[in-house]
Amino acid sequence: MMPTRRSFIKKGCVHCAAVIGAGFLLEGCGSSMHMYKTQVSDKKIIVPLNEFPADKNIMVVRSKDMENDILLVKKNDHYNALYLQCTHEGVGLSATDKKIVCTAHGSVFDFDGNVLKEPALKPLKKFETSVIENNLIISLT
Questions:
Q1: What does pLDDT average to over the chain?
Q2: Is the same domain home to 71 and 85?
């Protein structure tokens, strides 16, 4: 029996939705970002260097004391600590393996905090970092 036009369109829409939904689910199956949870103490965050993944140059630091996360980026001889808050309208940002993205309005930043794509015009807030006895110290002042 030949399907009706209505059932053909309905089945086609269901299949398209399933394919699109599977794409979103598979996107989340990539390598996950390492996250270190800690607390702020004396306007500083201390991250043991052995928490930094050996095979990655980035990780997220989360503290319940802060509204947004910090992205730590391991450079040759130093670390960038970038506050994951968009400079356009203050929305929290998401980091991928290659860039930092504002899912609200589309701004994109590099791992130095520079704007790659507007509407944001200002670079991300950076915190000073130092290494003391195998610990990375992030100064929040």
A1: 85
A2: yes
